[in-house]
Design brief:
With 216 residues, the chain is α/β, with parallel strands linked by helices. It is 45% helix and 18% strand. Strand 2, helix 2 and strand 3 form a beta-alpha-beta unit. Helix 4 packs parallel to helix 5.
Length: 216
């Protein structure tokens, strides 16, 4: 059975751990597991039928795939800490939403050890679709990783061998998506104040019917 290590046991980490455990031997590590801190993550890991590791080194030992699902501020630090612990053939998949340059710095750290680094862009919120959340992957082993992740139930696609490329795609797409969300909020807020919300929605639907403006 494929062995997976998940670093970070927040919302996304818990979802991936629980769902991947059906297809892989899954071990999880979070800095909150450290003795003296809250013991809830360890209990949560057991509830999800995954193994809570005793340390980062313990989590990585024997794992074929290492999934980093930590906060953006900790992404580079985790890659740096994992680098000297990784063995030849292990893949470090960086799922974190950080800038392309940060991904390249993390890749440099991993390459200074024996592992291989992959840039993974999570292209939608994880909770609704869980493992079916679209993933784009770049890096030398992107194709192999995509095949393996899909075999475990993920929705992954290899895009490029260049680290940082899929993170750039996500970042630029987010500018448009979040910009549209902000404009929509401002538009409808103003329309509501003037009492013309229904008329504005009808006009928008007439111009852009595929966007579902009349979908209530």
């Amino acid at each position: 059975m494929t062995r997976v290590a998940i670093i970070g046991f927040g919302e996304a980490g818990q979802i991936y751990a629980q769902d991947l455990a059906r297809a892989a031997n899954t071990r999880v590590w979070d800095k909150k597991f450290i003795t003296g801190q809250s013991d809830w993550p360890g209990a949560k890991a057991k509830q999800a039928a995954v193994q809570p590791a005793r340390s980062l080194a313990d989590a990585l030992e024997g794992a074929e795939f290492v999934l980093s699902l930590v906060t953006a501020g900790n992404a580079l630090e985790v890659a740096t800490q994992a680098a000297p612990l990784m063995q030849s053939g292990q893949l470090f998949l960086d799922f974190n939403s950080v800038a392309p340059d940060t991904k390249r710095a993390a890749a440099k750290a991993i390459r200074e050890g024996a592992g291989d680094y992959l840039d993974v862009a999570v292209m939608a919120p994880v909770p609704p679709q869980r493992l079916q959340t679209p993933l784009l992957i770049s890096g030398e082993a992107a194709a192999r990783a995509a095949v393996a992740l899909c075999a475990m139930g993920c929705n992954a696609r290899a895009v490029s061998k260049r680290i940082g490329e899929v993170s750039a795609i996500k970042m630029c797409r987010s500018v448009m998506i979040k910009g549209l969300e902000a404009l929509t909020t401002e538009c409808l807020s103003a329309a509501k104040q003037y009492g013309v919300e229904e008329a504005v929605l009808a006009s928008l639907h007439a111009s852009f019917p595929s966007l579902g403006w009349d979908d209530r």
